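To fix ideas at the outset, we first show an illustrative case, written as a sequence plus integers encoding its fold:
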Amino acid sequence: MSAVESEPRTLAPFGRRRAAVTAVEDVGAYRLLRCADDGPDPRPGQFYMLATAERWGGGEDERPYLPRAFSYLRRRPGELEFLLEDVGPGTRRLAEVRPGEALWLLGPLGCGFDPPEEGRRPVLVGGGIGIVPLAALQASLPAPALLGFRDAAHAAGATLLDDVTLATDDGSSGHRGLVTELLDARLDEDDAVELYACGPPAMLESVRRTSVQRGVPAQLALEAGMACGFGACFGCVVPTHDGYVRTCVDGPVLPAAELEAVPVP
């Protein structure tokens, strides 16, 4: 795909499919998984529901976990890449997989990013693991990236993108402070841009407020816990000016101007 397309959704094949893990590697505090897949090409910002084919459960009876939602990092011919962080039982099991094991994939799901408005230049704003859909987007829409991480170990993820300005909470790499501080400085210099953002809810809510206050359009890829991924459970709703929408079906990418707020736990 040479550019972001106006239709933001690629439809997933019916049912989940088995995908062999072909490679794994550490990227600082993150784990990169590469798996074989002959499914349709996703649009930047779309996501997949992932589970391991074996040992996907916990406790004495191995009670199954729900699949986990992940944006894809990169699409190569016959291959998909995902980036994750070990933050709980499900992600820990995914971080343990080795080449030759298999994943269950369902996707691509949801709506991805739209092209920028005419006359506006794209700027990417990411926090933590939220860099993932921005890396996919940058492959088809070259743009500078403002990225924030908690420390240098997590900031290693910035190597997956180009033209990066970096911030860390502890100052161990790049600017000491928040990525939203970098954004404010960038907009003070030039606000003829369109923002593409993904990261923790508090960061996205700050980007949303900045977008509205400055009159700068923004597309936000929301992070949400999802039980199904295709709109059946209504467990991932977010408030808009016209009522609630489902992140998994109507998003995860939504215009900042349509949101009442980004829910912050």
About this structure: The chain has two domains: 17-109, 121-258. DSSP finds six helices and 18 strands in the chain.
